[in-house]
Amino acid sequence: MRRGKGVIGIALLVGAVLAGTSACGGNASDSDSSHDSAKGGASGRASASARPSPTHPTGPPMLLDSIAPLDKATVGVAMPISVVFTNPVAASAHKNIEKHLKVSASVPTTGAWHWMGDKRVDWRPEQYWKSGTKVRLDADLKYVSNGSGRYGTHPYTHSFTIGDDVRADASVTGHTMKITRNGSPVRTLSINAGSTEYPTWNGTMAVIDKQEKVHMTSCSVGISCNKGDANYYDLTLPWDIHLTQSGTYVHYSTGDTNPGSGSARGSHGCVHLSLSDAKWFYGQVKQGDPITVTGSPRAKAPADNGYASFNLSWSQWLAGSANGGQTTAAL
C-alpha cells in the first residue's frame, strides 16, 4: 500500500499554516533616532542636528511555512535542514538568502544549501552527520528580500541533535531489510516490496515521520477509484514509517501478512513487514534515519520527494547551491 502526497514541513512560523492531504502511496521594523541641541554662544542662537532614522525596505512580509527539523528535536544522520517559504523566491535572491541562513555545529561539518524549486531550500552535509552532533540554524532573515518585493520580518533559530546512527538497507530481490545501529548489525527482517506494475523507489530516503495508524487509499494516489478493481484498497493500517511525499511507507499490510521470499505478493510501492516486525521497527527509527532500497526496477526517488537528498551526488547537490559548499560555524 502507499499513501498520497503529504506535507513534510512541521514547524509553523509567522502565522502561516501548512496544509496537506492524507492517503497510501517579531517586530516588523526597528528605528533609532536621536536629537542633539546646543545653545549658541554670544549670539544666543540655537542650533540643532538630527540623525535621520535608518530606512528599511517596505513591502509585504516574506513568510516561512516551515523549518524542519523541529526545534530541540533528535533526528537521524541523513536529516537535512529544510526551509520552506510561503511565496516563491526569485533566483536572483538565492545567494543573499543562503548567506543569511547560518548553520553551526559542534562537530565541523561540510555541507551546502540546495534549492528545490522556488519555495524550498535544504541544507545537507556532504556525508551523513556524525552521531551526537549538536546543530543550530540561525535564519537571520529580517529585512532580507525574496527578490519579488517581499521582505523578512524577524530572525528564527532552530537547534537539534543528531541521535544514534540507525540505518536500514532493504533488498527488493532478496526480500530482506537489514538494520544497523551505530555500525553494528541489529536484526534482519523479511519484506516484500513493490510489484512489477507498482515498483518501490530505489535509493536512500530519510524518514519523514511515523504514525501508529494511517488511512491509505488507492484512489488518493491515482491507482484505482473503482471498488471492483483488483488494485483498489481503502484501509487503515498500523506501524507506518513515512518515506516519500508520493506515498511510500514501510508498514504492515493486512493483504500481505507474511512477507518474505516465500511470498509472491507484491505491494503498490511500499515495503511490507509482518505485524510483529512492523511494530518492532516502528520503535527503532526516527525522523532522518536513512532507509536505502536496492534491487527495484524503478529509479531513485527524486531528492525533493520527501528527504531524499542523498540520492544526489555531492557535485549534483552543489549544482543547486548559490554559494557552494562550506564548513559549519563552531557551536
Which range does the strand content fall in? 25-35%
Tell me the number of helical segments per DSSP (H or I, 4 or more residues long): 3
Backbone CA Rg:
25 Å
Distance between the termini: 43 Å
Order of helices and strands: EEEEEEHEEEEEEEEEEEEEHEHEE
Average residue-wise pLDDT: 86
* Biggest sheet descriptor: 6 strands, antiparallel
**Shape estimate:** globular
Q: What is the tally of beta strands?
A: 22
Share of helical residues: under 10%
- Given as residue ranges, the uncertain stretches (5+ residues, pLDDT < 50) are 4-24, 26-48
> What's the multimeric state?
single chain
Q: Write out the strand line-up for the largest beta sheet, numbering strands in chain order.
A: 1-4-6-9-8-21
Structural class by SSE content: mainly beta
Structure description:
The protein is mainly β. It is 6% helix and 34% strand. The protein is built from 3 helices and 22 strands. The protein has helices spanning 94-99, 275-282, 314-319, and strands at 11-12, 34-39, 46-51, 64-68, 73-75, 81-85, 101-105, 110-115, 120-125, 134-139, 156-162, 166-171, 176-181, 184-190, 203-206, 209-217, 234-242, 249-252, 271-273, 290-294, 326-327, 329-330. It has a 6-stranded antiparallel beta sheet. A hairpin with a 4-residue loop joins strand 12 (166-171) and strand 13 (176-181). The longest helix is centred in the C-terminal third of the chain and has 8 residues, at 275-282. It starts with 10 loop residues before the first strand and ends with a strand.
